[in-house]
């Protein structure tokens, strides 16, 4: 309970200096702490706040996937935590920050390939989702989905007909 009160006080004292992402992270952490207190599962010496931080970072990353500045460093800066703390939070999820960003960008590119009209070219998708070039995008896509973006688009179109 002391940890919940301390966190609440800290939010109260610093909320004016937090950006939207910081407010969201503080809110998520407060909710996780309250749940832990309700379940009587809080260790005052080492609270398990990593899931709340990782989720706040994922939410922030998801809203900036097309941003060329998106990185672990940018997420840490926006959430007002150290890069190392962010990396530790993601380590608890079993997926590094950079792998999460790449996976989500590939997922969004895959969804874009299934749009029947106005579909972007592979080169345009690579540029939009911040891959270095189309061959880099194609290799990453094939490694993740087992086929090239063009093959995936063809199979999606034939499945839709």
UniProtKB/TrEMBL annotation:
Keyword Transcription regulation: yes
Domain HTH araC/xylS-type: 55-155
Gene Ontology molecular functions: DNA-binding transcription factor activity; sequence-specific DNA binding
Pfam families: HTH_18
Key words, A-Z: DNA-binding, Transcription, Transcription regulation
The UniProt record lists the keyword DNA-binding: yes
Protein name as it appears in the record: Transcriptional regulator
